[in-house]
Every structure is written in structure tokens, then in C-alpha cells.
Write a structure and sequence with these properties.
Layout (H helix, E strand, L loop, with lengths): L12 H14 L4 E4 L1 H9 L3 E4 L11 E9 L16 E7 L1 E4 L5 E6 L6 E4 L3 E4 L7 H10 L1 H8 L3 H13 L3 H16 L7
Parallel strand pairs: 1-8
Antiparallel strand pairs: 2-5, 3-4, 3-6, 6-7, 7-8
Helix pairs in contact: 1-2, 3-5
Length: 195
Amino acid sequence: MGVRDIGNPKYPWLIEELKLIKYSLNNNIPIIGVCLGAQLLAYESGGKVEKLYDQNTQNKITEIGWGKIYLKESIFNENFKDYFTGGLSVLHWHADRIKLPKGSHLIASSEICKEQIFKIGSNAYGLQCHLETNKNMISRWVEEDQEFITNALGAEGQNIILKNFKELGKLNEKLRISVLNKLFELIFSSKSIAI
């Protein structure tokens, strides 16, 4: 499901999610949206979500599997500089691109999709990528989302993702969790109302 499914009776909770996001933004309540949550956060803030295209061929593509994201150079990104030396390997699992709303701040990008980590307002963050994943989550996703993986990576896609977790994801799990902890520290230190 995605932003294009808002209003689809098959996914009634998307409208409720948007209401919660709007309420959180209007009341300065800290929020971190991951993957679809990041897309909904950007959408509710005036951004757009569109299909992801290869910049060279203009063909629709899927960003799935392990890949690096890189910190964008900005004085506002100082809080994250220690975590992104040489790039940070994260799990990607999407075929959409977020077009950030006016006033948002881009923190990190991949080579395939620019909008990976961003900030909206004083304490709302969106993560198109997945920092939170562990072995159990990935094993479940690989089992449940076989068609999406095969369409993007071919018949060996599931094995590729699991192998790359052992080589990339497991090695930097503590670092990815440290980035998440830094996000929580930043949003809850801004004297906001927390739920």
C-alpha cells in the first residue's frame, strides 16, 4: 500500500494515520515516520509521493535491499556527522520517491533516491529507509513479501537480501540503532508534548 491508496476501502486505516499525523504536527508532538510513515508525513505536510524512476533511463525502479545512505552537507546535520562516515548501510524497501514539502530539511540520501531521512518542523522526522531492522524482521519480510522482492531482484532476491544482511546489516546494527536513538534524543529534548 502507499499514499495512492488513501481512500481505498481496503486500507481504511490510512485516513486515520493521516489524522494522527496532522494532529501531531499541529500540536508539536514528536513523530518519526518510517517508510510508508515517512511518505504519509511528507504528504500531510504538503509534499508528494511519486513512483521512483532511474535518473538515466527514466524507467520505474524499486530500491530494495541493502545500500548506503550519505549525510547531506549542511550546518543543520551536525548532530549526525559521526554516524555517516563513509555512508551508512541501511535496508531499502520501496518503489516510491518522496517529494519533500516546502520548509522541510533533507538529512540523508542514497544514490538511487534522494529523500531518505528528512526533518519537518521542529520535531518530526521521516525515514524512507529502514534503520530499525533486525534478523527476525528481515526474515519475516522476505517470507511475506516474496512477489515484491522477485519483481525487483529476480528469483534469487530473497537469498540476496538475507546474505547482505549477514554481510552489511548485522555489522552495523548498533550504529543504525544509535542513529535512531539520536533522533529520539533530538525530538524529545525540544520541550515538546510527548504521547
